[in-house]
Amino acid sequence: MNFKKVRLILFLLLSIPSYQVFSQEAKQKQKYVMVIHGGAGTILKSQMTPEKEKAYKAALALALETGFRRIKAGESSINAVEAAVRIMEDSPLFNAGKGAVFTNEGKNELDAAIMDGNTLMAGSVAGVTTIRNPVSAARAVMEKSEHVMMVGKGAEKFAGQAGLEIVDPKYFWTKDRWESLQKVKRQDSIKAMEGAGEKKSLKLGTENRDSKFGTVGAVALDKQGNLAAATSTGGMTNKKYGRVGDAPLIGIGTYANKLVGISCTGWGEFFIRNVVAHDVAALMEYKNKTVEEASSEVVMKKVPALGGDGGLIALDRDGNVAMPFNTAGMYRGTVTSDGKIEVFIYKE
Amino acid sequence: MNFKKVRLILFLLLSIPSYQVFSQEAKQKQKYVMVIHGGAGTILKSQMTPEKEKAYKAALALALETGFRRIKAGESSINAVEAAVRIMEDSPLFNAGKGAVFTNEGKNELDAAIMDGNTLMAGSVAGVTTIRNPVSAARAVMEKSEHVMMVGKGAEKFAGQAGLEIVDPKYFWTKDRWESLQKVKRQDSIKAMEGAGEKKSLKLGTENRDSKFGTVGAVALDKQGNLAAATSTGGMTNKKYGRVGDAPLIGIGTYANKLVGISCTGWGEFFIRNVVAHDVAALMEYKNKTVEEASSEVVMKKVPALGGDGGLIALDRDGNVAMPFNTAGMYRGTVTSDGKIEVFIYKE
What we know:
Oligomer: homodimer
Number of helices of chain A: 9
Distance between the termini of chain A: 57 Å
Largest interface: A-B, 52 and 52 residues
Shape of chain A: globular
Strand order of the largest sheet of chain A: 4-3-2-6-5-1-12-13
Radius of gyration of chain A: 22 Å
């Protein structure tokens, strides 16, 4: 064996493992383990202060960090999404839990859902007013009852029996949201007067504007390869008549299976009519679309085709992420398996 | 031209149109314009009296006849499904409207949904106790509000403002259903005692048995080729905690698009977790399955795989119908474009 041959063999022996390590690292860097959103809507840089922007980014980063710690410790994706959503529910910045918008009657009515992609177990609550963390109530429905969805007083009674923290409805009051309600009420009454005589004014619902909605959500992929999704919201400012949006509806605002997890935010009515979350999953499973292609088709084409807007976050079993939205902005962020956190507000 | 040739030409001239008429007739006979169900469950011939069987068949036939008259007169499929479901809501035989089952608290809490396949407009109500015809309330939500789903007192207030008939909750009381509640309560308390110490007994929901559910629904195809679907239910006997099942959930218990309309009946929790109605539609649209294949795959494979049971009715835009169920029976019936009505209870 000559020197050249030895050198070649040595080179190969040394280079193969190092190449493998490098490629694994590259792959790991690309693999997302969690994605979150804090609502889509008319979020314009011109209307944002640097302090507010900083506060939102810090809250998103904290939610991601909290969820990521669970994933890193080997906990389930259900634990991770619940933990991340609780952080956003407890923050007054987002329209969920503390900081939820007000109904027409000046109440905070909260909705939430959670789903385990591995077992297809799911839980949801809607129209609750006394449960501090609705996402945890949704999880209790999933794990401690034989039901999937509970609404109103019944859901609150159940949550109390399940040992969840019950608060005075005043807990959810924030000055910002109260002022928004007064502003929207004024706008709606002006619009109603302007529209008098038109067919539209006969409608008994409220006018929907994207300044009125917002939702929080998370999707996670754990070390066992299982996906979970959760969503929580206060609904629409000035909502009437016990309106329920897409967030607490399994297959619509929240869905997870073995292939993908999805959480939506936007004009709920259009997300319901499009069965958005399940449609994304179906396009992936039945038409072999990527998570990016399927999410874009539904959010950028199907929802706008009916006149709706909003966005969603999706994470597939291979750690690929999609965060499409057709509004000006969407509070959102990701964390990869190596712990790298990124947060965004506007279109990049 | 000889006699034989003339005879042949005459024969051909005469036979072609008559053959066309015949084949059109044959085709028309196969085209279904409406399909309805009155609930799936443990319906055993051994437990049925001839009088009861006759009463169920007469009620189903009346609902089909009522819907068919609308279709024949050129009205929309939405009108037809609403009319058919109202007949079943008004009948004390079915678990919807009058004749609804009782909750644990001795109330009748009603859910309903309706969807227009052509426009993807949809409406639904859940947990209402004073609206005589919940399916009409769902339609009012669809047409007279900007929302899709309303629950509880808010939905009742809206229905009143929309001009729907409001009744005293006593209207829904029937002796049969009241006795069922007492029986189920006794069974549940025995089961709870027997199960004491087991993990299962920790669950705060009620035990689900197929004797406890039942739903009514209709899907129609109008002369313009538009599909619509509607579902209405009283939920589960002895239900607690404001439980909502699949019936009022768009894409789950009720769905229609330009391709197919679907209404489900069964153990709601499993239908939610499988996003049943939209899954049938997605299998047809994205995997080119027939209505029969798609319906069977979901009802006979996917729902039982999780441990659930029930059935569904589906009608596609070409007038093909599917009525799969994995229970002992399902009250159901069809009407074709020539007015031929057929009703069934057990497996054929």
